[in-house]
Amino acid sequence: MNEQERQRLERRALLLKSLAHPSRLLIIELLEKGPRCGADLTEAVGADKTTVSKHLTVLKKAGLVRDKKRGTWSDYELVCDCVSHFIDCIEDGKRKENS
Known about the structure:
By secondary structure, the protein is an alpha+beta fold. The protein is built from five helices and three strands.
């Protein structure tokens, strides 16, 4: 494996690691329905603002989420809306395999 290939795989691993938390998966599912402000996400996740902010930072670093400032508020949106479809595809494959 060359350096370029290793870096590509490292980026993919970071992306997958960023999804490895139930709260972040919930945030992704909520954002698939449309942009949301941080307060809405905090209420939906049921955690404190600091915790949700950390989850959003992980998703932003992975390139899955972006924010748009609106005064003192931030609205968050997905960069790509296929994440849940990807997970659904894997789950469907596992169901077919087990039936």
